[in-house]
């Protein structure tokens, strides 16, 4: 099992997820999660806005199997929308349909999404549907298309590792799209597996959507991709107001500020809330160097919870076994 797979399987561990929620931000997650409350997120947005950085706010939430949990998530997201409006923040919403009941009852999920999108529409706030695993892909597109009939403030994500993404860019060309490499483990019958193939597909899709002319969010920490895009937009006379770069909160902070200073639209993805565990594990899966975030916290601060020590020991134990096998 590759190190990436270890973290991906940890990200799906409901027991650790439940325990992590009880104990608040731990294990270094506080470096990449913008707090657990709306006032904390609002403060972070204000700071970033001062540097001409806009934000997309994600109310973290995984493993939603009951309608009450989806209804609570909807209420939180509505509160964030209200705060964005009241505080006049440069920010929009990112949400996961699964958090709003996609795996429970699709009509119930649609109603939840519709309420959120409609309130956001009233305030001129954009709502982006994050994309999760392949099993949810088509139903997420279906929800989006249905909402788009009435509301133009919705868009979604195209994951470069899927073979069908080129066709989906064409199909959803009227949508504002965020283009990413893809964060989940997918089967070889639907998705590229090698980094080279994914990177190549990623550049192709970005260029395809930029040339269509709809607003494109290029969401990556990869400087090679960013440099490629800078040259591509220049060569093709694509104006700055047709695209933005996006990165996750806490990653390559200096580069985020630099891109904004250079005059590019820049948007930071701000996850917040108690349900940080799965998100954090996926970040470790993407880039094991992010373990520095964990070790710094665990070994220099006295974490006073069983979960922090237990999970970190598990992670680091796995790492020491696996790291010998990981090629640099
Ligand atoms: C804003 C945003 C939203 C996203 N939304 C989704 C979504 O809805 N669905 C989904 O499946 N995925 C999503 N992702 C995750 C995405 O799919 C990738 O898994 C993730 O971004 C890692 O790929 P990468 O393009 O950043 O570069 P990688 O392939 O991880 O890295 C490429 C190179 O960039 C450099 N690099 C990367 N990170 C760092 C760093 N922290 N510090 C220094 N150098 C670094 C290294 O040289 C590395 O080799 C999102 C990502 C972002 C940024």
TrEMBL record:
Pathway: Amino-acid degradation; L-proline degradation into L-glutamate; L-glutamate from L-proline: step 1/2. Substrate binds at residues 96, 282-283. Its EC number is 1.5.5.2. Residues 42-290 form the Proline dehydrogenase domain. The keyword Nucleotide-binding applies. Binds 1 FAD per subunit. Its cofactor is FAD. FAD binds at residues 131, 159, 181-183, 195, 220-221. InterPro entries: FAD-linked_oxidoreductase-like, PRODH_bac_arc, Proline_DH_dom, Proline_oxidase. Keywords: FAD, Flavoprotein, Nucleotide-binding, Oxidoreductase, Proline metabolism. It is an enzyme of class 1 (oxidoreductase). Pfam families: Pro_dh. GO terms for molecular function: nucleotide binding; proline dehydrogenase activity. It catalyses: L-proline + a quinone = (S)-1-pyrroline-5-carboxylate + a quinol + H(+). SUPFAM superfamilies: FAD-linked oxidoreductase (SSF51730). GO terms for biological process: L-proline catabolic process to L-glutamate. PANTHER family: PROLINE DEHYDROGENASE 1, MITOCHONDRIAL, PROLINE OXIDASE. This is proline dehydrogenase. It comes from Kurthia zopfii. The lineage of its organism: Bacteria, Bacillati, Bacillota, Bacilli, Bacillales. The gene is fadM_1.
């Amino acid at each position: 099992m590759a190190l990436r797979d270890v973290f991906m399987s940890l990200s799906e561990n409901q027991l650790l997820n439940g325990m992590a929620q009880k104990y608040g931000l731990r294990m270094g997650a506080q470096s990449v999660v913008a707090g657990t409350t709306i006032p904390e997120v609002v403060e972070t947005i204000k700071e970033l806005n001062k540097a001409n950085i806009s934000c997309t706010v994600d109310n973290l939430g995984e493993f939603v199997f009951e309608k009450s949990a989806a209804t609570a998530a909807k209420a939180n997201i509505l509160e964030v929308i209200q705060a964005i409006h009241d505080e006049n923040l440069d920010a929009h919403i990112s949400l996961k349909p699964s958090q709003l009941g996609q795996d429970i009852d699709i009509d119930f999920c649609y109603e939840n999404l519709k309420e959120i999108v409609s309130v956001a529409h009233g305030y001129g706030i954009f709502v982006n549907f994050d994309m999760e695993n392949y099993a949810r892909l088509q139903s997420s597109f279906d929800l989006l298309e249905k909402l788009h009939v009435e509301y133009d403030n919705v868009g979604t994500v195209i994951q470069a590792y899927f073979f069908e993404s080129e066709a989906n860019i064409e199909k959803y060309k009227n949508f504002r799209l965020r283009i990413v490499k893809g964060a989940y483990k997918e089967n070889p019958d639907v998705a590229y597996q090698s980094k080279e193939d994914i990177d190549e597909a990623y550049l192709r899709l970005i260029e395809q959507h930029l040339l269509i002319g709809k607003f494109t969010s290029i969401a990556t920490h990869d400087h090679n991709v960013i440099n490629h895009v800078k040259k591509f937009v220049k060569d093709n006379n694509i104006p700055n107001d047709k695209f933005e770069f996006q990165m996750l909160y806490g990653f390559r902070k200096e580069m985020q500020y630099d891109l904004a200073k250079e005059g590019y639209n820049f948007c930071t993805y701000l996850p917040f809330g108690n349900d940080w565990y799965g998100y954090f594990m996926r970040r470790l899966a993407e880039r094991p160097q992010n373990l520095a975030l964990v070790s710094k916290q665990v070994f220099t601060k006295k974490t006073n919870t069983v979960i922090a020590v237990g999970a970190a020991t598990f992670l680091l134990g796995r790492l020491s076994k696996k790291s010998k096998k990981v090629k640099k």
